[in-house]
Write a structure and sequence with these properties.
Elements: E1 11-16, E2 19-20, E3 32-33, E4 39-40, E5 45-46, E6 58-61, E7 73-86, E8 94-102
Antiparallel strand pairs: 1-2, 1-7, 3-4, 5-8, 6-8, 7-8
């Protein structure tokens, strides 16, 4: 599992009504908030088969503003497993991952 630290950029997923909105139709399990204000991450989601950026992967970004959609939500995320692509800090930077969950 990869979570942000001082050497890893924070990654995000931009959704519309809890679902993927830039290709794909995955409805994500959203985090839930406890009565004490703490959060429980959403369940892990993933893909089978070869990872191919923009075709078969769970996509995360370090540049969520570049993936903005009206009425969208931006969630912090973490991933585990193999990746494709590169987080570069450039506009529309993204990676494809095997599994991810929303924080």
């Amino acid at each position: 599992m990869i979570t942000p630290d001082s050497n890893t950029p924070r990654l995000y997923k931009v959704l519309a009504d809890g679902a993927s909105c830039h290709g794909g139709s995955l409805t994500w399990p959203l985090p839930t908030q406890n009565d004490d204000g703490s959060w429980v991450p959403g369940a892990w989601v993933g893909v089978d088969g070869p990872l191919v950026l923009c075709e078969n992967a769970i996509h995360l970004t370090d540049q969520p503003a570049s993936w903005y959609v009206p009425g969208g939500q931006c969630w912090a995320a973490e991933y585990r497993g193999e990746t494709v692509g590169e987080i570069s800090g450039a506009w529309e930077s993204k990676i494809g991952v095997r599994e991810a969950r929303l924080l």
